[in-house]
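Design request, tokens follow.
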């Protein structure tokens, strides 16, 4: 079995995954609530919280899987990208467990982990396919083949999830912004306000969301407080629709350019219901095109996806990984 650990941001995660990486026996996620008062993740607070919870989360993952450390054949851990302090907590824990039992260690790229979550959702999935990664820290398109992942395009400024977080803050909604905006937009008209979709006519596969945030800011400045409250569902719906349209357009363009039979949408924004509906309609139009969207619990940060990615990632033998370091990018 693979014991996997993920601490790239504010979720302390551990999981036990079968060696082929297509089935998780456990998947424990402890989401930190300490950051709500700040409206965003505070790196130092996140690192300290990981330290406090790591042992308990690993113990729970083993117990949920009905396993012990004797059943573990290797340890996998996220080493990049992410908050460097948070990453180092997870890496140190993984090194300690692996070294104490003379096990190999598998260093995993966080973004590759999010793509690998699709294998847990659809065990028969196989390359080639095009994958969209959209979260609070990353927005990018990849071509996935048997040879690995190739970057096709990425955001030129802000990530999609970060744009949703900042939009929610401007609208006076909660954190994280994606779910808050979706809830507020439930009864709104997405066509009431014409928010911009950047680069939609460009032939490249890059994204941009800074202009969308600016557009919302100036729209709110032109409105009174009472009008904002009254129009909140429509403002939220229009803003969310602009983010979704940007993501969907580029993913579909990538699929056409690379003749991809399968589309994968991963990471937190993949849980967005509007995006799922938008791509579901397109999937129905494209006969023979398969859309894979992991369930919501696999779209957020978790360790099962790290274990899934580890099955296709070279392991570092004992004790060579003691000098291994984490990277923020």
């Amino acid at each position: 079995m693979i014991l996997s650990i993920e601490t790239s941001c504010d979720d302390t995660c551990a999981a036990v995954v079968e060696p082929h990486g297509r089935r998780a026996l456990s998947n424990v996620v402890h989401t930190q609530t300490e950051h709500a008062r700040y409206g965003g993740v505070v790196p130092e607070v996140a690192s300290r919280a990981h330290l406090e919870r790591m042992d308990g989360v690993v113990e729970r993952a083993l117990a949920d899987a009905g396993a012990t450390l004797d059943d573990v054949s290797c340890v996998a851990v996220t080493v990049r990208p992410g908050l460097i302090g948070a990453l180092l907590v997870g890496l140190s824990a993984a090194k300690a467990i692996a070294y104490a039992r003379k096990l190999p260690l598998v260093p995993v790229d966080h973004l590759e982990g999010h793509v690998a979550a699709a294998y847990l959702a659809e065990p028969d999935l196989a390359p080639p396919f095009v994958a969209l990664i959209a979260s609070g820290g990353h927005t990018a398109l990849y071509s996935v083949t048997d040879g690995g992942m190739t970057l096709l395009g990425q955001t030129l400024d802000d990530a999609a999830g970060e744009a949703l977080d900042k939009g929610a803050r401007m609208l006076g909604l909660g954190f994280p912004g994606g779910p808050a905006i979706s809830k507020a937009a439930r009864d709104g008209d997405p066509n009431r306000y014409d928010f911009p979709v950047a680069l939609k006519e460009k032939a490249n596969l890059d994204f941009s969301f800074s202009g969308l945030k600016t557009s919302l800011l100036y729209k709110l400045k032109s409105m009174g407080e009472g009008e904002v409250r009254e129009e909140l569902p429509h403002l939220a719906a229009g803003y969310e629709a602009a983010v979704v349209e940007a993501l969907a357009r580029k993913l579909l363009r990538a699929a056409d350019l690379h003749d991809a039979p399968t589309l994968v949408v991963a990471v937190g924004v993949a849980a967005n219901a509007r995006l799922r509906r938008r791509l579901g309609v397109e999937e129905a139009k494209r006969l023979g095109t398969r859309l894979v969207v992991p369930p919501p619990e696999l779209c957020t940060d978790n360790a099962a996806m790290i274990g899934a990615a580890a099955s296709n990632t070279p392991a570092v033998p004992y004790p060579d990984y003691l000098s291994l370091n984490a990277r923020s990018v």
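Comment from the thread starter after seeing the answer: thanks! The radius of gyration is 20 Å.
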